[in-house]
């Protein structure tokens, strides 16, 4: 009986820890101050070309960039295509234009296949923007993503979620323990 209680408790703790770790990892991928995007052919999504957080996860649209106003970011774009140029710029509408915050990489010369480019910039305005590839027709072929600039990045999981999770685990553990102990006491008396 005791073994089963420990088994259940351990399982709950492991699941809780894994979810927290997964959530933290997901958040870190697009909200660190050093971001690497891979540009190339789409593995999943509706476009022909796209962006991804790894060379094997290129999607259309690309991953959303969650940025904080006033924070300095360095974005590196690796062009993993074998025969196609790409580029990167942040714009206010989903169209080629002047880069916002000076966030543009090779927007006229383009990053060659197998090459990479980098830009360091500081968003000075909150709002919902886009990043696009400036190679003609590449936006309509799927090379774009959302950019969200906020004053802070909402923490996920939030402190409140963590507190409720801890309470739920404690309550469940107490319930399990009581369920296992009561029948024994009945038998003894
Ligand atoms: Cu492109």
Can you put this structure into words, describing what you see?
There is one protein chain. This protein is of the alpha/beta class and 189 residues long. It folds into two domains: 2-12 and 157-188; 32-150, Sandwich (Immunoglobulin-like). It has two helices and eleven strands. A six-stranded mixed beta sheet has the order 2-4-3-1-6-9. Helix 1 (2-31) runs antiparallel to helix 2. The longest helix is centred in the first third of the chain and has 30 residues, at 2-31. The protein binds copper (II) ion (CU). The site of copper (II) ion has 6 residues, from loops.
Query: What small molecules does the structure contain?
Result: copper (II) ion
> Class of the largest domain, according to the CATH hierarchy?
Mainly Beta
- Domain count: the total is 2
Unreliable runs, pLDDT <50, ≥5 residues? 24-29
Number of strands: 11
CATH topology of the largest domain: Immunoglobulin-like
- Counted by DSSP, the helix tally is 2
Q: Identify the CATH architecture of the largest domain.
A: Sandwich
Terminal Cα span: 19 Å
| Shape annotation | elongated
> What proportion strand?
25-35%
Find the CATH superfamily of the largest domain: Cupredoxins -  blue copper proteins
Strands in their spatial order, largest beta sheet:
2-4-3-1-6-9
């Amino acid at each position: 009986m005791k073994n089963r209680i420990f088994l259940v408790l351990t399982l709950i703790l492991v699941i809780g820890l894994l979810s927290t770790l997964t959530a933290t990892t997901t958040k870190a991928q697009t909200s660190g101050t050093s971001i690497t995007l891979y540009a190339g052919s789409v593995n999943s999504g509706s476009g022909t070309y796209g962006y991804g957080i790894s060379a094997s996860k290129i999607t259309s649209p690309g991953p959303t960039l969650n940025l904080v106003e006033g924070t300095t970011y360095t974005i590196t774009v690796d062009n993993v295509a074998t025969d196609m140029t790409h580029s990167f710029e942040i714009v206010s509408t989903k169209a080629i234009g002047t880069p916002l915050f000076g966030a543009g990489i090779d927007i006229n010369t383009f990053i060659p296949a197998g090459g990479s480019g980098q830009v360091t910039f500081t968003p000075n305005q909150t709002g919902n923007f886009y990043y696009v590839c400036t190679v003609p027709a590449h936006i309509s072929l799927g090379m774009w993503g959302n950019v969200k600039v906020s004053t802070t990045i909402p923490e996920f999981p939030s402190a409140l979620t963590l507190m409720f999770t801890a309470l739920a685990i404690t309550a469940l553990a107490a319930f399990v323990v009581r369920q296992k102990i009561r029948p024994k006491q009945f038998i003894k008396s």
